[in-house]
Amino acid sequence: MPRLRAGEVVTLDVAREVSPNGYFLTDGHQDVLLHYSEITDPIQIGDSIDVFLYHDTEDRLAATMRRPKLLSGEVGLLEVVDIHPRYGVFLEMGLGRNLLLPYSELPELEELRPQVGDSVFVTLANDRSGRLIAKLAGEADLAPKCFHAPDDWRNRWVDARVYKPLQMGTFVVCEGGVLGFGAIGFIPAPDRPRLLRLGERVRVRVTFVREDGRVNLSLRQQKELGRTEDAERLLEFLRGRPNGAMPYSDETPADVIAAKFGISKAAFKRALGKLMRENAVYQKGNWTYLAAADTGASASDGVPPQPEA
């Protein structure tokens, strides 16, 4: 069984030069090739040098004097640079060859998978052939690297990166700036307007700092600000509707509201309540209408349009 394994930084002796390929390095039991293109400083036979081990384009164990962005035992945030329809996504790791994150590591739901330009938290692993692959970093990997969010984070807006996307909510690492790796957070499904994909960077508001230093988050403004924004959106929607009417009201199911407007049922009711208090809209049955002052005529003057499919 080979003693040397891809993903490690090891100290090897320069044994001999083999032109036009490079130098062979050895640990006394196994030799690996250091390609000329992977030499960053002058070397000569007999030197002991530190190198990173990986597999070259011919799947041979090889060495490089370049330092990758991720080593075995580390957690790294690597950018998605390519997507392969059969194998998975490829990550930039600072070497000439990109690192594969296999489809077996990715969410089953396609819309939750990362896109080119996203960055994912990963660790290094070896497949059955010993080649380097990436594995998604989970909570056990991330928690020791993360810090406890300070109490004054509440209601602060921070940038975060998705590390576990689920339909019931989204787990993220909030960026910590100079503080370090970040703080672990959770965005409940009602507090996001849509599903968030793995590796996506989002701007979130801290709604609660827990005793364990983790945070609850939202993509929405505080209720008062959000109520105003949502009310304006509903007004614009109604103004573009026939007769200024829409087949949505307080009685409309939450999943229909979320699909149509991207907001929770509670947020929808708050926005409608604001508009009704301002006499901008009124409800009749399961329909909501613009007030006559906004439409120029009462919406009840005509027959309302049929409900949308």
TrEMBL record:
<dbReference type="InterPro" id="IPR040764">
    <property type="entry name" value="CvfB_WH"/>
</dbReference>
<dbReference type="InterPro" id="IPR048587">
    <property type="entry name" value="CvfB_S1_3rd"/>
</dbReference>
<dbReference type="Pfam" id="PF13509">
    <property type="entry name" value="S1_2"/>
</dbReference>
<dbReference type="Pfam" id="PF21543">
    <property type="entry name" value="CvfB_2nd"/>
</dbReference>
<dbReference type="InterPro" id="IPR012340">
    <property type="entry name" value="NA-bd_OB-fold"/>
</dbReference>
<dbReference type="InterPro" id="IPR048588">
    <property type="entry name" value="CvfB_S1_2nd"/>
</dbReference>
<protein>
    <submittedName>
        <fullName>RNA-binding protein</fullName>
    </submittedName>
</protein>
<dbReference type="Pfam" id="PF21191">
    <property type="entry name" value="CvfB_1st"/>
</dbReference>
<dbReference type="InterPro" id="IPR039566">
    <property type="entry name" value="CvfB_S1_st"/>
</dbReference>
<feature type="domain" description="S1 motif">
    <location>
        <begin position="155"/>
        <end position="220"/>
    </location>
</feature>
<dbReference type="InterPro" id="IPR014464">
    <property type="entry name" value="CvfB_fam"/>
</dbReference>
<dbReference type="InterPro" id="IPR036388">
    <property type="entry name" value="WH-like_DNA-bd_sf"/>
</dbReference>
<comment type="similarity">
    <text>Belongs to the CvfB family.</text>
</comment>
<dbReference type="InterPro" id="IPR003029">
    <property type="entry name" value="S1_domain"/>
</dbReference>
<dbReference type="Pfam" id="PF17783">
    <property type="entry name" value="WHD_CvfB"/>
</dbReference>
